[in-house]
Each structure stands twice: as C-alpha cells, then as structure tokens.
Amino acid sequence: MRKVLVLEDEDSIRSFVVLNLQRAGYQTVEASSGEDALELMKQNPDIRLALLDVMLPGIDGFEVCRRIRASGKRVGIIMLTARSQEMDKVTGLMTGADDYVTKPFSPAELTARVDALYRRIGDSDTAATPRSGEISSPPFLLNTRNRTLEKNGQRIKLTQVEYTVMKLLMENPGKALSREEILEAVWGRDYYGEVKIVDVNIRRLRLKVEDDPTTPTYITTVWGYGYKWEA
Q1: Span 185-207, average pLDDT
Q2: Taking the model in full, what pTM does it have?
Q3: 27 bridge partner residues
C-alpha cells in the first residue's frame, strides 16, 4: 500500500486532501501539527511521501521538511502553501521539498502531483542501472546502484530529485540541456508545475557540489536556455 503523510492544521482541507488521496488508492496518515507529523514519521517508517502545509503554529512545514531531510529518510515531499508569493515556493524547495502546490488546488492537480512524485520514487527503487554502476567525472563519482554522489571521496547528501537531476547532467557532459528538457526528464511530461522548479533545484545542487556556488564551474548556466555539466 502506498502510504502518504498529510500535514494540515485545517480540518476541512485535511479531510478534502485525505478523501481524494484515498480515492486515488493511497493510504493516508493524518497530522494536524508539525510535532505530530514528526512523531508519525517515526512510527510509520513505510511512509514514502509527505504533503506538508507551510503555515502552521509551532513547528511549521519548512522546519518539518528540514528535519525529514536531516534524518536521511528517502521520502518525497510536496509543500502546500496558501500564499502565492514566490518566496514561499523557493523557501520550500530550498529546504528540501521536491514540489509545491498552491492553494486552492483541484483534486486532479493534487493527485497528479502526488502520482508523479510517487512514480519517481518508485522508479528510483527499481530502475535498471548500467553495468558499471558508476558515472565518473573527477572529482565526482555517481554510484547508480546505491544512488549516491561523492566529491573527492566525501559523500554528498542528495534528495531523490537532486540525484535524478545530477545523473541527467553527468550523463550528458558538455551538452547544453534546456530547462524544458530537464523538466520533462526529471518531473515527467504530465507535470503541472512551473519550469522555475528546475532553477531552484539547480541552485540547491550548486550549494552542495560547487567549490564556490556564486561562481559555479561544474553546473554552468547557458543563458536564456538552460544548464550544462562541465566535465
């Protein structure tokens, strides 16, 4: 059974989300506070995806996201925000979220986003790997069997989406990839969201892999087009 955590303090919205996810075949675990959500994550290690409301009393959705990522759990995370400000979206993505949905949202959009992210997580567990199992681009080594990245022998913690972006870039050294190409390859053709999610994930990756993220030398920008991996 595909299990999803739903963190939302408004009962009516949480019931709406839970009902639609259950109709789509998901098992749901409900939380009304950040504290409850973190405890339920510990009690349910088989949760594979979390929907986190941003605006909460006490521990907010951003902090729950940070703590899930810090725990090392391989969990897909979608932020739910009632505000349309760009800063909320960017903050959520920079704290480790894989996607965001802005309220109000339709049942079709919500389930499509959850389906797409769950599919990526599932694919990551069962994906066929090259015989070598490694992509080398000194000082980086990407292991496609255990889905890890090392720089100078030191492990770099990546989310599932960050790993997929990194793998796409390293498989195409020196090739300029458009934002749309990256979006389709990583998020899928049926992705509802905006192409800016590519830019935020690239920014997040640069903070992890570059010697100086302000002057990137590995993940370079192709202005007006996209990004390129400099082998």
Answers
A1: 89
A2: 0.74
A3: 3
